[in-house]
Amino acid sequence: MTTMTAPVPDISLDLALSLVAASVAPVLLLDGELEVVAASQSFLEQFDVDPGDVPGCRLADLGGGEWNVPQLWSLLKATAYGQADIRAYEMDLKPSGKAARHLVLHARRLHHNPERGVRLLLTVADVTALRASDRQKDELIRDKAILVQEVQHRVANSLQIIASVLMQGVRKVGSDESRHHLRDAHQRILSVAAVQRHLAGSTLGDVELRTYLTDLCRSIGDSMIRDHTQLRLTVTADDSIAPSGKSVSLGLIVTELVINALKHAFPGDRDGTIAVDYRAQGDGWTLSVQDDSVGMPADLEKAKPGLGTGIIRALAGQLGATIAITDAAPGTRVSIVCDPRSSPLS
């Protein structure tokens, strides 16, 4: 009597078929010849495939042949031979008479009894809408950058017009005090324009302070120092990066302090140096502007604060920093110090 042996069930295949049937994502189960063993319902619906066409159909023949992509075919064969896994392979599916779809594919060989044949699990994600959204975002960012650039040009032009109007006023007024105030306002408009011009050349996000302060001071020196062998303006800074808002405040402070030193620290065409320095210490930082000329006046405490002093105090307050003025022997050192461990003085 012949004994009949029941066939050994292919547990891994049964499990793969169950996964495909339960999947809510488009999934195909392929054999080593890249014929379709099973397809998830979501694959059939999303890619308009008739369920009756699936069994025994080659992947390349699905639909109208749009899946017959040589590069995909080569990658799947390499995966079948155990030479590779397909991870996030992107391709355009171009059905006849329909819009192209951008897909991301993942494929891997299933580990089971090799005598049962090769099995590949192929998952498909349609990212057409996502890519279109990304392109739209890129276009919006590009449009925004163009708009910001246009606004910056308009601001620069407006500042130049305002400065010109102020200079015309200087020529017309008869009072020396009025001329002084108009010139002071004119100089501050130019300082704001200098800050704006250098920030316009930077990114919209963070700013590298060494380059920014160096370019800013070079611009100030070119416009206000007649003899660079007589007066020197130097900048030293570490590798700090600062948000654009903080950079604007630092640039305005430096501009005010440097202009003040150029106007008052070197009477009688004295030689000298103005040194700008920025250093970060942990979460804190110190900005200093120091000259080596006549030094602080004896009646400094009695001196009436000017417009520049008010601007510096306001900007330092916005940055959560304190102001320290010390005798540099010779000269004067103004330090703007931000120390998170202590509260700023009012």
TrEMBL record:
It catalyses: ATP + protein L-histidine = ADP + protein N-phospho-L-histidine. Residues 150-336 form the Histidine kinase domain. Keywords: ATP-binding, Kinase, Nucleotide-binding, Phosphoprotein, Transferase. GO terms for molecular function: kinase activity. SUPFAM superfamilies: ATPase domain of HSP90 chaperone/DNA topoisomerase II/histidine kinase, PYP-like sensor domain (PAS domain). Its EC number is 2.7.13.3. It holds the Pfam family HisKA_2. It is an enzyme of class 2 (transferase). Transmembrane segments: none annotated. InterPro entries: HATPase_C_sf, HATPase_dom, His_kinase_dom, PAS-like_dom_sf, PAS_4, Sig_transdc_His_kin_sub2_dim/P. PANTHER family: ETHYLENE RESPONSE SENSOR PROTEIN, TWO-COMPONENT SYSTEM SENSOR PROTEIN. This is histidine kinase. It comes from Brevundimonas aurifodinae.
